[in-house]
UniProtKB/TrEMBL annotation, chains A, B:
Positions bearing the site annotation: Important for catalytic activity: H227
Chain ranges of the Peptidase M20 dimerisation domain: 208-364
PROSITE patterns per the UniProt record, alphabetical: ARGE_DAPE_CPG2_2 (PS00759)
Protein name (database record): Peptidase M20 dimerisation domain-containing protein
Binding, substrate: D194, H227, T329, R342, S416, H444
Residues involved in Mn(2+) 1 binding: D131, E166, H444
Family label: Belongs to the peptidase M20A family.
Catalytic site positions: D98, E165 (proton acceptor)
One GO term (biological process): proteolysis
Cofactor descriptive note: Binds 2 manganese ions per subunit.
Annotated Mn(2+) 2 binding sites: H96, D131, D194
């Protein structure tokens, strides 16, 4: 690998310049007026794939969408293959080429769509720098390095780049499911580089994600909003009932109060327990992130276990009640409470919905209210956990050790990355989350950055990962 | 009085025509672009007062206000005197010449600012018909009738007409307080005609209003909104704490759960109990008004006592939480819960605020939360109750009996009419609420109307009330 590392180091400035090129394409998927730029970014990638000799380049168009009152085309899901030999394993890599919105006046210190490298800090600023432009183009520079060195790529590579990740990945799942038996039929493992190190010092591999079940609890009484002077004290008020029910779901210290909800939660094994040693994380990280000292748990282990592998329930708000500044003495006629449960193995969305409904039904009966209620759970995203001893993870672990001279943290995420589960279920192969950036990169926030170190060592990491996948015992 | 009644009946069509004239002036005080019309309505009244020989006509200008981004002049509070003799009692009458907004497309069957009289139903439609244009101009027709008949008015009359009642009566209190010892110094009693019969069949006199204390309960944790995937289960969530506290304030059946809150509530006396017999009201009225069957109490007595003379607590909503349609998995950083308490004699806003704060403090402590809270109660409007045996009420009762051949219901209102208390406190004289319209007039709603019967008999009622005030034993 030494020659590859040397090549990468020698071309580091070029990689940074090219990152500047893609940051300058404001491929914001959530803004109809920017849609042309998303397409431009897709075209840029296709040109690069062509230049590098990828074959079977296919742009899958998922159709149209309604956005901000316009009907516009969805950007393509780009598939491409780099074939290196039928005897070699096939690695599918996923990334997204769209970005979050960004405006200088939101608090950016530089123009968000102009790359700025701070030499003194080593930080490269720009929207999309870490999420997810550096990771996706890095795969290209790996292929380019092997070509330049006259070496065969150790694996067959398939890329899957989408342009709608920041806006719900519209159309992606259908394409993955359709292509599972065709374009993706030889895939042996999947690697997604679209999350972050746990801290700022140490690389990690991510092996788990929580699921999410969303609930709408609607309570109705009068046919229209009432004046509290005229009706207060004489009618059952839907908002009063809603506060009663929703207050019974979770305690201030985060304990879910729905009977049976913890029954399906997998027990913490000894092997799992050991993964919580020496993590690159301290409570100060969460205090800095929230700018408060309002953490519930006193240890890193407990805090991360409650983020990663125990369920949580958050109340989000109410539709139909008074929400503006000032004082208004309305009795709302119909209110919809919103809450969600982050789920973990071995909970299922179906069982969670059942338990929530049973509980809400029982609590509503206790109120003795003449109002009526309805509870709906539109969709439940399942949790995901991978076997950290599978060869895909072993290969990645070895790659980290080679490039960074340290063992990676093995982490989970508290949120969901739905495409992970789609790949897992559609292909039935091991999926690995291999992050490139750091926890303080500010993806989705102002002053998004990636450190030059993370970017350049990240390219080496991806190359080494492919080498290890080729040689690891399967 | 027969000659007065005859004159009124003979001129009924003329009174209706003139009502049409004032309905056609869209004096909406809540819309900056309509402010000229409010002034036009004030000018119309001043011209009438002049024509009828009122003296000391004064237009008090309270200054300017900011409305919809414009700085505009507040409409005048108009004072005028009709002197009939120093030995006669002086009656101060109040009304307002501004109206609520109205648009045909809101669901009006006729143009809201064009009067339409339905001959078959006897209803006169138009914005402001019942609230409060018919009542205020009726006082003018009483004076006009006495003049036409060559009779002296039995009392000295002072009118106080404002143009900002529908928009918070800005500037009015200061003027009343300032004029208490000057313009209003000889006032013996006050009569306000700006509310409605309890039902649709029987006139009423109104002797009580509830007060209102508004509360803002703010709970803060993190410095910014958090993602529930990343932070759910690891931090104390302000919204969870808010639901816990607010759910403890009131039960589904309207019982306020704050210890001590009922201690100052006046006991129901036997005399008061008797006022709840034979009221023109049934539970069907409240079911029709709310288009639901969600009433708490089974009897008219209990229902009206809880509207009029017991306190109630309503939750209104939350500022800072998610309120839009759809699903969003935010943990709000800072939320402000809004609720209000309708108060009754002998509760005071000060004592209510104290009890609420003590309770919230105790409940917040129990949570064991690291979040912080703040509770504010910006202003408390006091409740008001009059002595129904005072001569002002006796005079009005006799007047109703003469005009309608029935005894009036003695009612309260669950809401507040703040000017009532201002007059009471600034002048120290008996204040009477003497409604003209019916409960189904739709003030503030679409298709506002007044029945021709209520308008014309109402003019007779006001005239008779003045006669009775002059002769009643004081
Ligand atoms: Zn991303
Ligand atoms: Zn993102
Ligand atoms: Zn009014
Ligand atoms: Zn009004």
């Amino acid at each position: 690998m030494d020659s590859v590392y040397k090549h990468i180091d020698a071309h580091a400035d070029e990689y940074v310049t090219r990152l500047g090129e893609v940051i300058a394409i404001p491929s914001v998927s959530g803004d109809a007026s920017m849609r042309d730029h998303v397409f431009a970014m897709g075209a840029w990638l296709q040109a690069q794939l062509k230049r590098l000799g990828f074959s079977d380049i296919e742009a899958h168009h998922p159709g149209k969408q309604q956005l901000q009152g316009k009907e516009i085309d969805l950007p393509p899901v780009i598939l491409a293959s780099y074939k290196s030999g039928t005897e070699k394993p096939t690695v599918l890599v996923y990334g997204h080429y769209d970005v979050q919105p960004a405006l200088k006046e939101d608090g950016w210190k530089y123009e968000p769509f102009t790359m700025v490298e701070e030499k003194e800090t080593g930080r490269i600023y720009g929207r999309g720098s870490t999420d997810d432009k550096a990771p996706i183009i890095s795969w290209l520079w790996v292929v380019e390095a092997y070509q330049a060195l006259g070496k065969d790529l150790p694996v067959n590579l398939i890329v899957c780049f989408e342009g709608m990740e920041e806006s719900g990945s519209e159309g992606l799942d259908e394409i993955i499911i359709k292509e599972a038996g065709r374009y993706f039929k030889d895939v042996d493992c999947v690697c997604i580089s679209d999350n972050y190190w746990l801290g700022t010092e140490k690389p990690c591999l991510t092996y788990g994600l929580r699921g999410v079940s969303y609930f709408f609890l609607e309570i109705s009484g009068p046919a229209k909003d009432l004046h509290s002077g005229v009706f207060g004290g004489t009618v059952h008020e839907p908002l009063t009932d809603l506060f009663h029910i929703m207050s019974k779901l979770v305690s201030s210290d985060g304990k879910i109060l729905i009977p049976g909800i913890y029954d399906d939660v997998a027990l913490v094994t000894e092997a799992e327990e050991s993964l919580y040693q020496n993590l690159d994380f301290s409570l100060a990280d969460i205090h800095n992130a929230t700018e408060s000292q309002t953490t519930i748990h006193a240890s890193v282990r407990d805090t991360l276990m409650h983020r990663w592998r125990f369920p949580s329930l958050s109340l989000h708000g109410i539709e139909g009640a008074f929400y503006a500044p000032g004082a208004k003495t309305v009795i709302p006629a119909k209110v919809v409470g919103k809450f969600s449960i982050r789920s973990v193995p071995n909970q299922t969305p179906e069982r969670i919905a059942e338990l929530v409904k049973t509980f809400v039904d029982a609590e509503f009966s206790k109120l003795g209210s003449k109002n009526t209620y309805k509870i709906e759970s539109p969709h439940g995203g399942k949790s995901w956990v991978a076997d950290v001893n599978s060869w895909n993870f072993v290969a990645a672990k070895k790659a980290v050790e080679k490039v960074f001279n340290t063992s990676p943290d093995l982490t989970r995420e508290g949120g969901s990355i739905p495409v992970t589960l789609t790949f897992q279920e559609a292909l039935g192969k091991s999926v690995l989350l291999l992050p490139m950036g750091r926890s303080d990169d500010g993806a989705h926030s102002t002053n998004e950055k990636i450190d030059r170190y993370n970017y350049i060592e990240g390219i080496k990491l991806l190359a080494t990962y492919l080498e290890e996948v080729a040689t690891v015992e399967k």
